[in-house]
Amino acid sequence: MLSKKTKYALHALTYLGKHRENKTVLIHDIAEEYGISHKFLENILLELRKAGYLGSKKGKGGGYYLIKEPKDIALSKVIRLLDGPIALLPCVSLNYYEPCAECKDESHCGINKVMAQVRDETLKILENKSLQDVLDGE
Amino acid sequence: MLSKKTKYALHALTYLGKHRENKTVLIHDIAEEYGISHKFLENILLELRKAGYLGSKKGKGGGYYLIKEPKDIALSKVIRLLDGPIALLPCVSLNYYEPCAECKDESHCGINKVMAQVRDETLKILENKSLQDVLDGE
DNA sequence: AATAAAGTCTATAAAAATTATAGGGTTTAC
DNA sequence: GTAAACCCTATAATTTTTATAGACTTTATT
């Protein structure tokens, strides 16, 4: 399962994508829309900004806004940023690989093989779906 | 990511599948093979037994053994038993469904739609792959 | 019958990860 | 100069996961 953090990040991006005509959107408004704690969301938006998805403006009249085109925001990247690995096992993770301590020989592990397949199919979707696709699905 | 519990369960089933010619296999031997804590594994095997995957024999000379054919043990079922939902969000889980508190209308949620697609592709694999496939992949 | 081996079961402890909050700092519009 | 709004780091609270403990039952063997 995705963490709430990740889920909220996706919601926040969706909200920002829907309000691109506004120069900025308040954390407060997003938090209210989804019933999320303001402070929790603040940390999430900060992370998204540091990762280059969002811009912000401080002070009165400030807020957040998307700085990437929705079509250029791959869901896989957002999930990895906030949640870490997408794969079901560390030994098949492309971005967060770690060997499994209990496994003597990964190349002869049947579990590894199945999970690699799951990873491939999952990534086939998440790498090709963008925020634009999410917006289109609303 | 799958929990260690689930991963160990899959390893244990694999081990038992490989040693079907033995009448029983000791927890101890499985734990040693994979470097897992005996007691932790004990709880896992107990759960697999209660779910009808394993039989056991108490007392001296006792141990565990598979009571299903490896081809009849779907990976999806094992994962659900030990880890819960396979889906990435509660709102797209078939077996552990829960609505997302922040979502007003699931049928118009773009995130829901993508995650349902991921679930479908994941299940296409995990429901059709069995312990036998794991054994064949070793 | 005694003993030791092996699983049973439930409870609890320890550790890690997730979720949430706090609060002072900085910037900016007005 | 004041209030609005984001910035940033730390910490607290909660939940989940991982691990351990220990007393109990069953069974083979001698």
Brief account:
Chain A is mainly alpha-helical and 138 residues long. Helices cover 49% and strands 6% of the residues of chain A.
Structural summary, described in words:
2 copies of one chain form a homodimer. By secondary structure, chain A is mostly helical. The first copy, chain A, folds into 2 domains: 4-66, Arc Repressor Mutant, subunit A; 70-131, no CATH class. Helices cover 49% and strands 6% of the residues of chain A. Chain A is built from 6 helices and 2 strands; from the N terminus they run H-H-H-E-E-H-H-H. Chain A has helices at residues 4-18, 27-34, 38-50, 75-83, 110-126, 131-136, and strands spanning 54-57, 63-66. In chain A, strands 1-2 form a two-stranded antiparallel ribbon. In chain A, a hairpin with a 5-residue loop joins strand 1 and strand 2 (63-66). In chain A, helix 1 crosses helix 3 (38-50), helix 1 packs across helix 4 and helix 2 crosses helix 3. The longest helix of chain A is centred in the last third of the chain and has 17 residues, at 110-126. The radius of gyration of chain A is 18 Å and the shape is elongated. In chain A, 36% of the residues are buried. The A-B interface holds A 1-2, 7-8, 10-11, 14, 34-36, 75, 84-85, 87-90, 100-103, 108-115, 117-118, 121-122, 124-126, 129, 133-138 and B 1-2, 7-8, 10-11, 14, 34-36, 75, 84-85, 87-90, 100-103, 108-114, 117-118, 121-122, 124-126, 129, 133-138. The first copy, chain A, binds a DNA duplex (30 and 30 nucleotides) through helix 3.
